[in-house]
């Protein structure tokens, strides 16, 4: 993802609310903004592969 692998690992530990898309702490059981209980782990971004013709 980025230049700093330690920071990337810390970012991927966060949970994202499926309702309001807020970032939550790694030990969250519900969203900090809307109290929704359906959270998902943050996805890693894939690098774009440029194809040359």
Helices, strands, pairings?
Layout: H1 5-12, E1 15-17, E2 23-24, E3 39-41
Antiparallel strand pairs: 1-2, 1-3
Describe this structure in words.
This protein has a domain at 5-41: SH3 type barrels (Roll). It is elongated, with a radius of gyration of 14 Å. The protein is 15% helix and 15% strand. The mean pLDDT is 84. It starts with a helix and ends in a 12-residue tail after the last strand. It has one helix and three strands; from the N terminus they run H-E-E-E. Strands 2-1-3 form a three-stranded antiparallel β-sheet, with no helix packed on it. It has one helix at 5-12; strands at 15-17, 23-24, 39-41.
Question: Quick recap of the structure?
Answer:
With 53 residues, the protein is α+β, with helices and mostly antiparallel strands.
Q: Indicate the structural class.
A: alpha+beta
Report the count of strand segments: 3
Strand residues, percent: 15-25%
Q: Regarding quaternary structure, how should these chains be classified? A: single chain
CATH topology of the domain at 5-41: SH3 type barrels
Question: Low-confidence parts, pLDDT < 50 over ≥5 residues?
Answer: none
First-to-last CA distance: 26 Å
Helix content: 10-25%
Supply the number of helical segments: 1
Strand order of the largest sheet: 2-1-3
CATH structural architecture of the domain at 5-41: Roll
The largest β sheet comes out as:
3 strands, antiparallel
């Amino acid at each position: 993802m980025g230049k700093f692998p330690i920071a990337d690992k810390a970012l991927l530990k966060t949970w994202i609310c499926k309702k309001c898309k807020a970032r939550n702490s790694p030990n969250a059981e519900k969203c900090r903004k809307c109290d929704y209980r359906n959270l998902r782990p943050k996805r890693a971004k894939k690098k774009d592969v440029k194809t040359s013709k």
